[in-house]
Amino acid sequence: MHKNKGFTLIELVIVIIILGILSATAIPKFLNIGIDAKNATLQSMQGALNDAIELSYAKLAIHGKETASILTGKDAGKIIAGCDDCIFYYGRPQLDIKTLSVLIDGINPDNDGDFVLTNPITQRPSSGNIFNAYITLPENMDSSGNIIDLSCYIKYSQGAYSATVAKPELTFKECK
Is the pLDDT of residue 123 over 60? Predict the structure, then answer.
């Protein structure tokens, strides 16, 4: 009696078809991993921003400075290490590159860090104004400093000269 060893051709074809179906359903998920990673990175930056905003507010509150309409220079630097160039409105950090680069790792004054800040405040805001800046990944910026993918950023909105609008609002726009 002859004993078969191995697979028949039919069994091999069936296994190949099953593997093909499984790979066809898995490929879209693997192709989307880069976008998932970008979203996770931006969401972690949003959490870090929120923590930095609240932590700096708490440090200023401990020293009774959270109600100061504006706190700058050495006064801020005495409370928060390295913040000699930082500006705070009612205990909240101003939306500028110098302040944010001290409070958060990954944002640098030269915009050569892990994240890029676009449209930061460059002058003192006047009463009632709301300023918006966008934090995104360096690969999402063109050479002119414009965002390439308009659905892949954190929007940072801030008002000034009022305790109710000084608290920044962070909005995450998911990458697609």
Answer: no
pTM (global) more than 0.70: yes
Residue 64 has pLDDT above 90, yes or no: yes
Q: What residues pair up with 89 in beta bridges, in sequence order? A: 92
Residue 66 lies in a domain: yes
Decide: helix, strand or coil at residue 8: coil
Average pLDDT over residues 82-94: 87
Burial class (CB in 10 A: 0-12, 13-18, 19+), 82: exposed
Please give the average per-residue pLDDT across 137-144, as a whole number: 84
Residue 21 counted as domain residue: no
Neighbours of 153 (CB within 10 A): 24
Nearest one of 101, 94, 115 to 172, comparing CA atoms: 115
Q: 3-state class of 43 per DSSP?
A: helix
Q: Which domain holds residue 94?
A: 35-173
Residue type, 6: G
Evaluate whether residue 102 is within a structural domain: yes
d(CA 94, CA 40): 25
